[in-house]
Design a protein that fits this description.
This protein is mainly beta. The protein contains one helix and 20 strands. The two termini are 18 Å apart.
């Protein structure tokens, strides 16, 4: 018990203090070149033939080329370009930790600066690794951070499940205003517990989803391991709702670190 509990003396008041969670996985991007292959995989192409446009009519073709994804100066760069490939007018990257970083519960933190301009749709999010309950949305999705360029400064944190998803307009979503998210770095995080997920920006809690006692896996599939995804989509049903500004490219999301605690 000595390793689990301790007390702190503050003046004459005895306070109970909770031990910090353990860092179990991280990437500080303190190297140059391609992302660490022991930690990252990629989703490539345009999702065709089964999921063209990645299910959202997106306009980018995902690559692992250095122009689209690289570590430099202590940061991960995900960069979208206006250059045709695979029948799509833009290229970008979608980097995933699947089978190299998979977790059930914990605190996931990503410090990032976002792209700007109409048509950008950066996301830091999670999907089920094993798809135990079936295809999307049955096995769940956790959106730690989403931002669309036509609505600058608004950060979204959301879950999607079979019962609660954007196709039914029942997704469980929170929003927070971060006016300088395209100019400054902020820490986007979730604290994922058995029956609750808290959403944070810079330690500020702005959204909580609590499992309804009536929910089975259709409402709460979050009892399986998930992995992390980071990408910039271009256009699409949401990101391109007000069009794509062809004059703004390239655009980048910069990531200072990814840290997972349990």
């Amino acid at each position: 018990m000595k390793n689990m509990l301790f007390t702190c003396l503050a003046g004459l008041v005895l306070l109970s203090c909770t031990p910090k969670s353990k860092l179990v996985w991280s990437d500080e991007f303190d190297y140059a070149g391609s992302p660490d292959s022991t930690k990252w995989n990629y989703d490539l192409g345009d999702g065709c033939p089964n999921n063209c446009g990645w299910g959202n009519n997106e306009q980018q073709y995902y690559t692992r080329a250095l122009k689209n994804v690289r570590a430099e100066n202590g940061r991960l760069i995900i960069e979208a370009h206006r250059d045709s490939l695979g029948g799509k007018p833009y290229t970008s990257t979608r980097i995933v930790s699947k089978l190299k970083g998979d977790w059930l519960y914990g605190r996931i933190e990503v410090k990032a600066k976002l792209p700007s301009g109409k048509g950008t749709w950066p996301a830091i999010w999670m999907l089920s690794t094993d798809w135990k309950y079936g295809g999307w949305p049955a096995s769940g999705e956790i959106d730690i951070m989403e931002h669309v360029g036509y609505d600058p400064g608004v950060i979204h944190g959301t879950i999607h499940t079979e019962a609660y998803n954007h196709m039914k307009q029942t997704q469980k979503e929170g929003k927070i205003s971060i006016p300088d998210c395209q100019d400054e770095f902020h820490v986007y995080a979730i604290d994922w517990q058995k029956d609750k997920i808290d959403f944070f920006v810079d330690e500020n809690l702005y959204h909580t989803v609590i499992r309804d006692p009536k929910d089975n896996f259709e409402g709460w599939p979050f009892d399986q391991r998930f992995h992390l995804i980071m990408n910039i989509a271009v256009g699409g049903n949401w990101g391109g709702k007000e069009g794509i500004d062809d004059s703004i490219w390239p655009q980048r999301m910069e990531v200072e670190y990814v840290r997972v605690y349990q």
